[in-house]
Write a structure and sequence with these properties.
The chain is an all-beta fold. It is built from no helices and 20 strands.
Length: 231
């Protein structure tokens, strides 16, 4: 009863949309390939980033860095990273559209087409490490302390979740049953990981990351799990 509509924006047909952590700006990836950042309260245009090459696929999946200074978006097999304040293109990477900024705001993690997880340093402007995997990554989530990465398999027929130590790439846990290839979320204390099931499995599996045991299975949904967050 305390919910009310504060405003709405007509942004037309877009291939991606996101909001920054401060809830001050939103970004849309338009169908023509342009990236536009607008102010959330009144929709005023702040930054307009045209694609570097009109032959590219339309941009999608735009993501702000934790401090809101950087933006990454994907176009086909290419990820581009911009500094919004300087309107500067920091780099282009060959990778999949499952990119994730590390909580430190300096590193960008993404599924590398060379295999595994690529880690790109935004200061050095180069890929500093690649964590090996024997499957194609789907969802990537970093724990609240920024030390561990959870990644699951794209293939719903071979569902797996692996927990990697970021600094070394060491595999901490490797689960191949009672997991899914959908969304994942860490608890605030980093002790639990929620994993959504595959497209025909509407359950959520909650794993204890301290000892690698299944803590609980959440039942009740009748459709695919498309988002998950711990309170």
């Amino acid at each position: 009863t305390d919910l009310r509509l504060r405003g709405q924006h007509d942004y037309g047909l877009v291939s991606g949309l996101n909001v920054d952590a401060a809830l001050e700006r939103y970004v849309v990836a338009e169908r023509n390939g342009d990236i536009i950042v607008r102010r959330l309260d009144d929709g005023r245009e702040l930054v307009h980033l045209p694609p570097a090459d009109r032959r590219d696929s339309a941009y999608s999946n735009p993501v702000f860095s934790p401090d809101g200074e950087l933006l990454v978006a994907s176009a086909g097999r290419l990820l581009r990273v911009w500094h919004l304040g300087r309107r500067e293109l920091l780099g282009g990477l060959q990778g999949q559209a499952n990119e994730l900024f590390h909580p430190d705001g300096r590193r960008l993690l993404f599924g590398s087409f060379e295999g595994g997880i690529g880690i790109w340093d935004l200061v050095e402007r180069r890929m500093v490490r690649r964590l090996p995997l024997d499957f194609t990554p789907n969802s990537l989530v970093v724990d609240p302390e920024g030390r561990r990465l959870a990644v699951n398999n794209t293939d719903p027929e071979k569902a797996r979740v692996v927990i990697l130590e970021l600094d070394s790439g060491r595999v901490l846990f490797n689960w191949s049953s009672q997991v899914g290839n959908g969304v994942m979320a860490w608890s605030a204390d980093g002790q639990l990981l929620a994993v959504g099931g595959v497209h025909n499995d509407p359950r959520v599996y909650v794993w204890n990351v301290r000892d690698g045991t299944l803590a609980s299975v959440l039942r009740g949904h009748t459709g695919t799990i498309v988002g998950a967050r711990f309170a």
